Amino acid sequence: MTTTDKASTKDRLLDAAAELFYRDGVSIGVEALCRTAGVSKRSMYQLFASKDEVLAASLERRAPGYAAQLTPGPDEVRTPRERILYVFEKAEKMSVEPDYQGCPFLAALVELKNPEHPASLVARDAKERLQGAFRAEAELGGARDPELLARQLMLVFDGASARAGARIEKLDGLTMATATTLLDAAGVA
Amino acid sequence: MTTTDKASTKDRLLDAAAELFYRDGVSIGVEALCRTAGVSKRSMYQLFASKDEVLAASLERRAPGYAAQLTPGPDEVRTPRERILYVFEKAEKMSVEPDYQGCPFLAALVELKNPEHPASLVARDAKERLQGAFRAEAELGGARDPELLARQLMLVFDGASARAGARIEKLDGLTMATATTLLDAAGVA
DNA sequence: CCGTCGGTATACCGATCGGTTTCCATGTCG
DNA sequence: CGACATGGAAACCGATCGGTATACCGACGG
Description:
Two copies of one chain form a homodimer. By secondary structure, the first copy, chain A, is mainly α. Chain A is built from nine helices and no strands.
């Protein structure tokens, strides 16, 4: 089927893009990208207007899985406090993998200094969604200022992501401890 | 004086390097770098073995001034708690400048995915020094676990740096509030 | 006065950049 | 069978990459 073939090519391209952009940075060339994806440059430029669009699409594709990886299932964890801490627990577990480079969306935002880059918009959106999830849990948990708590948790999350990704720090429970302190101070039981 | 002339060329090069690497990222080319510095490529490669060394040297040069910018003078601020909060206050003030891109050392570490890159070593060193300063103040302030508090403050500092630099967030007192909460929890009066 | 030294300018190296285009093999459909 | 769309391989575009080499300049020291 034509549709299936097209999608497969696109999928291979976006998968390779997600991996290479994450591992080697956004400066990776189109040549190398297409080579590892097994896709001709012609097909790439037929599917996307530019390398920037490929990057944006690869981030967009990655977003739902990333969120699912960090978020507990519906009946997996009970209280809002536990659901928030679950995110940090997962993040810490991810950070010990040998090729961990921090949150891919934050990395893209830092590397692309331009905040208007199409991929920057996608990345900021992903960040906003996580913050929204924190905020929703904070409200459920009766936080004094849910928005403030959500922003504080994002600070911790992204700080930990950058520092662990850059191999500045090993987070043995550091984010869990910090998030716990912030939850306590916000009155989330 | 020969020494003065040499230093001047080197200074021009490192100043331009610091600015361009920060503004445009580490991918900025040697050609553009030398052009804006008013230094020939030949001179550059006479002073440094490679572009990577130029980047490392420019970060090293920038470090003391950066630290001085964040740290209060000896009699400017009295208590350890105030001295710690002073850092975040300064950081928030810096973050509102139009061309702010976050902490240059953290940005370099994220962009250079390789933690063994000469510039990565310099950047990590700068980060370690700030953490050491936090730790020293935490001890003076009677923190229950000075090292833990210092690491938590670095999480907040770098998270805020990355997020404000990427234009995800405006920190109106967010880091001050978060640091205050952490100080309170650590027992630093 | 002459050599050397620090410096610039410039051209060059092979490689790669993002992106376009040409050619051709493989269809699939009428 | 013939017409046409698809897409892969690869050449090609001008520009730039990091790095080197050649040639020339002015100042300073013997």
